[in-house]
TrEMBL record:
Coiled coil: none annotated. GO terms for molecular function: oxidoreductase activity, acting on the CH-OH group of donors, NAD or NADP as acceptor. Keywords: Membrane, NAD, NADP, Oxidoreductase, Signal, Transmembrane, Transmembrane helix. CDD domains: 11beta-HSD1_like_SDR_c. It comes from the Eukaryota. It holds the Pfam family adh_short. It comes from Nothobranchius furzeri. The keyword Manganese does not apply. This is Transcript variant X2. The keyword Transmembrane helix applies.
Length: 308
């Protein structure tokens, strides 16, 4: 065996181990920084009663954040607050503030925004994780349903943004995080209203990012396939649909724990855009941009297969 070959055999494993060690240490350091990124910060969660909302509430509460938990049910918000209090050390945590927030009632938004700002006098972090879904052929959806989805997925979040933005601009500080579906980037059949609302809110936050950067305000979007209820409680969509594969992930979607970890990491690194998805949905996004005809053909084929 030549000296060169022997050297290669010895060096390659060392390089691999050192590289793996570097990335491991990087993840550890990022994780430690992330745990301190919310301490004493005023954090609002728009849907604290969802699976992801509860997970974020637990993580941020233990991290020492000053939480403002929003939801449609006062009783369930109180239950969540009690759960957080019973599972944490009251000497190092803050009791969360509770605010009723229902994007179905847009007329109540001015009062809700005032109540939110009165909780601590300011906001540091807003997490928009609310979402209303519907799946149906376009012709079967009423305009009332279209408006309902737009209120919940678009008009509600942007109204809240517009209400708190002046305070953030005056303080030259803040971080807005939109937890959005991958359908904010690509659209699939039978989700016309849902995809339209998700595209709209995605575009709003993308535009807003450039507008508020000079004021020291960060805007991040996190696009996922779907949030599963639990690690073992979600099944994938019908396998007869080609485009149903866009929502398969390991194959259970994104767990609340995984999504909340990504949110905490984004708060630390202030990354502008995060995509939590396996390879196929990522390829679909690129195909939509560079090979639109092929993408549309695949979507149409999926609809035909579904009707067979």
């Amino acid at each position: 065996m030549s000296l060169g070959w022997t050297t290669t055999v010895l060096v390659v494993p060392i390089v691999v181990v050192l590289t793996a060690g570097f990335f491991y240490l990087y993840d550890v350091i990022v994780g430690l920084l992330s745990k301190t990124s919310v301490r004493n910060k005023v954090v609002l969660i728009t849907d604290a009663l969802s699976g992801l909302g509860k997970e974020c509430a637990g993580v941020f509460h233990k991290g020492g954040a000053r939480l403002i938990l929003c939801g449609k049910s006062w009783e369930k918000l109180e239950e969540l607050a009690d759960e957080l209090a019973n599972s944490s050390d009251p000497t190092v945590t803050f009791p969360p503030k509770l605010v009723l927030l229902d994007f179905d009632d847009m007329g109540s938004m001015p009062e809700v925004i005032d109540e939110i700002l009165e909780c601590y006098g300011c906001l540091d972090i807003l997490i928009f994780n609310n979402s209303l879904k519907v799946k149906a052929p376009a012709q079967s959806l009423s305009l009332e349903m279209d408006r309902l989805l737009m209120d919940n997925n678009y008009f509600g979040p942007i109204t809240l943004v517009k209400g708190v933005l002046p305070s953030m601009i005056s303080r030259r500080n803040g971080h807005l995080i939109l937890v959005n579906s991958i359908q904010g980037k690509i659209a699939i059949p039978f989700r016309t209203a849902y995809s339209a609302s998700k595209h709209a809110v995605q575009a709003f936050f993308d535009c807003l990012r450039a507008e508020v950067e000079e004021f020291g305000i960060s805007v991040s979007t996190i696009n996922h396939t779907f949030i599963c209820c639990s690690a073992a409680g979600t099944t994938s969509a019908s396998k007869s649909l080609l485009w149903s594969l866009l929502f398969v992930r390991k194959p259970l979607g994104v767990s609340p724990e995984e999504a909340s970890a990504e949110i905490v990491k984004t708060l630390s690194n202030k990354k502008k855009e995060v995509l939590i998805a396996p390879s196929l949905p990522k390829m679909a996004i690129y195909a939509r941009s560079f090979f639109p005809n092929m993408f549309f053909s695949v979507m149409a084929a999926g609809v035909k297969n579904d009707k067979m």
